[in-house]
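Hello, quick one for you while I still have it in my head. My current little project is about how a certain protein chain folds up. You're getting the sequence in one-letter code plus the fold written as tokens. Would you mind checking whether the tokens look sensible for this chain? Here's the protein in full, and shout if anything looks odd to you:
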Amino acid sequence: MPPLRILPLLLAATLTSACTLTPDYQRPAAPVPDSFPNVTPANVMAPAVDTIAWRDYFADERLRETIAQALANNRDLRIAALNIEKARAQYRIQRADLSPAVGASGGMNAQRLPDDLSPGGDASVNRTYSATLGFSAYELDFFGRIRSLNDQALQLYLGTEEAQRSAQIGLVAEVAHAWLTLAADRERLALARNTHETRQKSFDLTRRSFEAGAVSALDVHQAQTLMESARADVVRYQNFVAQDEHALVLVVGAPVPAEQLPDRLTDKVSVVTELPAGIPSITLARRPDILQAERVLLAANASIGAARAAFFPRITLTAAGGSASSSLEGLFDGGSGAWSFVPQIRIPIFEAGRLKANLDVAEIQRDINIALYEKAIQRAFREVADALAERATIAEQIDARRRLVESAAAGFRLSEARYKGGVDSHFGLLDSQRTLYGAELELIGVRLSEAANRVTLYRVLGGGWQ
């Protein structure tokens, strides 16, 4: 049977029977406890956060619009998407090695022979024209070297997809944090302005009382100190608000319309009433960053198969068929058919330890990636455990701060009444003002922590990226 007829049978046998020497993959055991600490029945949530799309998780429509704007404009997310396209192209390049690269070629070869070398004794010019179709150095992947490299490229490509999902979740959380921080600082600014106005009125009243001889100069200076302190807070929070707006524009990647900006901190960040705790730690395996680490581990495992296959013979085929003639006019005439078939085998005999060293590198890299995968799980477990630990006490903190504000407000009203009645000194009134202002600022801070905790739990639990 002619070699060109045997060739398709060889290729079919290669594609159907080729195996790989890649080690069997075993997912490493998660080096973390089976469940998270600080678990209480009240913390259990259904469905899990990682199944909820961000549009369904966040309650404020302005925040949702800002997140959508960031997903469309953020440059980091664009880079992640482009990395996917790059990895997909690299995978297609590697996958192409599984098939022969067939090409057509045509050429002319001219050679002049001097008279002393010419068979006829006269100088002559010999020309050969050819047109062929074939392929060169196609490797028969009997031991799976090409397939292992293809699997490696595939896993790296899938890993970039997980990286994009992780980047999208991180961006959603970053936008939410920036938006909430701006909301809290705007509320602090409004509180500082109201406090400054109140203290300005108190200072004016105290100064008139001093001019009438009703209070001492110390009372005037104390009232002025509180007023100037509030004015300094107004300037400080104005600076914070400006910086928050700049940070939000940067993370969004475009100017944010004024109607999307918050004027105060919302008490309902997410539509989920209770955030999760009573869930097994194995659910962390669904986090995109952990899935990416596992894809990289699978790629390293596949590279071991390629390194092992390098120890075995490598068989390549070069074949071509077409037409050849000594004249261009007779190139496609009957009887001008020509073909060539060049099988080659290369058997490694002495490589000075190169192949063994390549295998050692592949196996060590696989062990490194196992450690990185386990570290990613441990880091994720800690992030969730820390968020749940904060979640376990945040409600009580807010309740305590609210009660403190109520108590401070009642104390201020009582102190004001006693001062007007001549029972208390002006110092007591100023101290109650300062206590109330501090308690209100602390309450805003705790409410921001509670809102940020919801966003953090959404991120660390691998919230829905769709």
